[in-house]
Fold these 2 entries.
Entry 1:
Amino acid sequence: MTSAVTPRTSTNCTAHLVNTVDDPGGPQHHDHLGTADDIGAWAEAVGALAPERARRLAANAEEAADLVRRAQDLRTAVAGFFGAAADGTDLAAPWRALRPVVAEAVAHAELVGEPGATTHDWSHLPAADALLLAAAGAAGRLAVAPGLARIKRCGACPWVFLDRSKNGSRRWCDMGDCGTARKMERYTARRAARRRAARAAG
Ligand SMILES: [Zn+2]
C-alpha cells in the first residue's frame, strides 16, 4: 500500500477510488479525499481529469465541502460493493447502496463515439460532477463485467485491486510495496526460526 496518488496502470479507476485511504485507523492514516485540493491532486494523478480542470474543482469553501462529502459518500458506496465482491460476500445489499449512484451517472451521461465504439461521457459537466459521475459510471460498468470476478483484496493491506494477470494469481495490490513487505516478513520469520533451531541444537 503506497500513496493512492501514485497512478497505477494495472488497476482501473474504481479500484483507484476505493484505495484512497492509507493505513485505515493506523498511525500513517491519510485520506486522499480529505479536502478539495486533495481530490484535485488525486483526480489528476489517476488521470481522471486534465490538470487545468482538476485544479478548479471548487470555487469556494461551500463547494469544496460539498465536493468532499460527495466524494466520500461515493467511495463508501463503491468500497462497500467491491469490497463485498473481493471478499466473496453477498452483493445484493451493497448493490442497492451503489445503484442510485450509478443511475445518477447514467442519467447525466452523453453518448460519444461511433456505433461499435460508443461510450458514456461526462466531460460537458462542471469538473466536480464530471469526476464523480465518471467514477460512478465506471463502477456501474465493472459491476456487470467479467472483471468483477477478478476484484481481489490485497494479501497484506485492506486495498482492493483488479487482477489482470493471465492466470488470476496476483495476490498483492502492489508487488513493489505490499508483496515485497510480505516477502520480507516471511524471510525474517524463517531466519528467526532457523536461529531458534540452531540455539536449541547447540
Ligand atoms: Zn496491499
Entry 2:
Amino acid sequence: MRLVKISDYNHHNMQLAKPVYDRKGRILLGAGNTIHPKYLEKLKEMGISHFLVEDAESNGITLEEMLDMPTWMDAILGLQNVYNQVAAKKPLPLVAVQKTIGQLISEVKRRKTVLLVPSTSIASELRPYAHAVNVALLSLQVGKAMNYNDLQLRDLALGAYLHDIGKAITPEKTKHPEAGFNILRNIHDLSLRSAHVSFQHHETLDGQGYPRGLKGTAIHEYAQICGAANMYENLISLRETPPHEALEALMALSGTKYLESVVKAFVDRIPSYPPGTMVQLNNGEPGIVIRIDTHMQRPVVRILASGQEISLTDNPSIMITELARDSLRL
Ligand SMILES: [Fe+2]
C-alpha cells in the first residue's frame, strides 16, 4: 500500500487500498476498486488530491501503523458535530468527545508510531476536522515520548482535538484562540489545561506568536506540543511538504519557537520517510520504503530492481539522497 497523488493515479495498475469517502463521511468507493478516469475529475472537484493504493511496487507494505479509516472518520465526523453544536450555541457533547479521545489514546499507545492519513485524502468540507484529529494524534505521540501519564495524555489530546474550536464562532484568525478558550473554560468536566491549549497554540517561545505574545515558560508545554503539531500538519497537508522536509522545518525552530524537548520528542517519534515513499539511495539504486523498524529516520528500503531489503539502521553508510520522481508529497 502507498499514497499517490491523484495526478499519478493509473487505473490500469492501481487499486484502492482504503475507501474513498464523500462529503458526509460515507463510503463512495470501497477498497479493492479501481477508479475510472471520468470519476477522478469528480473526486478532484470534491477536493480529494491523494489516495492510498495497492500496486506492484508497494506490494507487501501494510501500513499497519496507520490509524484505521473508520476510527479516523468517526473522530472527524464527531468533531464536525462539536463545531455545529457550538456554532448553534448548544452544549458541547463532551461525553462523545471523551470517548473519541479514549480511542485515539489507545491507538497511539499500542503502536510505536502512528502514520497519519493525510487530510488531502478527504473532501475539502471535512478537512479542518481531519487536520485537528491529526494534530491530536501527533500531540499524543509527542506526549507519549515525553512519558506523560494517562491524565496528562487525556488533557493534552482534548486540547489538541479542540484547539481550533473558536473558529466555530469567529472567522477572525487572531480571535479564535481566545474564543476557543472561552468556550472550553466554561465546561465543568474539562481541565483548564485543555482550554489553555486552545488559547496558547499560536504562541511561540520568542514572544512573536498571538494573541498575547507570551514568551518562554509562560506558554504551557501542552500548547507548545499542539503548536508544533499544528505547524507540522499544516506543512504536510496544506502545503504538501514531504514529511522529511516538514521535520527539518520544525527542527530549524527548535529553541526559538518551540521547546527543544518537544522538537526532540517529535523527531524521535515521527518518521521522515513513511512506508510507501519512493526514494533514491546514495548507491544509485531506486527503492521504496517498506517499514519502520527501530529508528524513525532510518527505515527499511526495498531495492526496486532486485527486491533486496536493506535496513538503513543496520547499514549506516547507505542514505536516502532524494525522493524518487513520482514519490508522494503527503
Ligand atoms: Fe489555530
